[in-house]
Design a protein that fits this description.
With 260 residues, the protein is α/β, with parallel strands linked by helices. It is 22% helix and 25% strand. The chain binds fe (ii) ion. Fe (ii) ion binds next to loops.
Length: 260
């Protein structure tokens, strides 16, 4: 890919797919909802350069759930960069989602950008943490990257979003943000986990959360109430060669039928 054109990415997150194809979560058939979200996101669009699948892809960590995800997302015909969320089971996810077109964590150079996919998995306790090994890997990537612009991709939110989920964010967010603030090339940090839209600027970086491909929590609410006014959503990201990020959130236009 030449450095002169934008890198187009589709972020899908928190699909919470179960082993049973008709498995539900909070009234949504999550596999059906993932399929509907991908179809809505790609409708009338050129395919993205890659899909970012930012964790809690599975609800139960089962092999079958990852096979469902593999079948659906491989259908887009583009590379898929996956990271684990707290509900995922990393060894199983890695076994099922690390051969082409899937990549598990790691980093990749695309045009003028380097994307760094980070694992914040720290058990299924809700919150997350960047392990010493993962922080060391990140430092190594920052050290050897020659691209002028960097995008960080993780599951847990590194800044408060004003949600009840702030209790279960990234434990060592301060350490991560110090690193991000200090590098000078990080133009964006994107995450999942919060099941709501979040967009903020911080010292030249865009901080962005995408909605889930199934249910959303009420935006900025201190309780875990589901936002019944929203269906599944997705985020498009366009990484421009000059380091700017153009982004928009989309919603499934006719929400798939909630089952209860
Ligand atoms: Fe999560």
């Amino acid at each position: 890919m030449g450095a002169e054109r934008p890198v187009r990415l589709l972020q899908l997150t928190d699909s919470h797919v179960r082993a049973a194809a008709d498995g539900e979560l909070k009234g949504w058939r999550t596999l059906e909802s993932l399929e509907a979200t991908l179809a809505a996101a790609l409708d009338g669009q050129d395919p993205p350069d890659a899909i970012l699948a930012t964790g809690d892809l599975s609800q139960d960590g089962s092999r079958e759930s990852y096979r469902h995800i593999r079948r659906v997302l491989a259908g887009a015909g583009v590379p898929v960069y996956c990271i684990p969320g707290n509900h995922d089971h990393p060894p199983t996810m890695m076994a099922e989602l690390s051969s082409a077109p899937f990549h598990y964590c790691g980093d990749v150079g695309l045009g003028a950008w380097r994307l760094v996919m980070l694992s914040t998995w720290d058990g299924d306790r809700g919150g997350g943490r960047l392990s010493p090994q993962e922080l060391q890997r990140l430092a190594g990537v920052l050290d050897r990257s020659r691209e002028p612009h960097l995008l960080m991709v993780l599951h847990h939110h590194p800044v408060p979003v004003g949600s009840w989920l702030d209790k279960v964010g990234l434990d060592n967010a301060d350490e991560f943000m110090r690193l991000a603030d200090g590098d000078g090339r990080i133009r964006g940090i994107v995450w999942g986990h919060v099941h709501q839209v979040f967009e903020r600027q911080r010292r030249g970086m865009q901080l962005l959360a995408a909605p889930s491909t199934c249910f959303q929590f009420k935006r900025g609410a201190p309780t875990s109430d589901v936002d019944a006014t929203r269906g599944p959503g997705f985020r498009w990201l366009e990484l421009l060669p000059d380091g700017r990020i153009s982004t928009r959130v989309g919603w499934v236009p006719v929400p798939v039928e909630a089952v209860s």
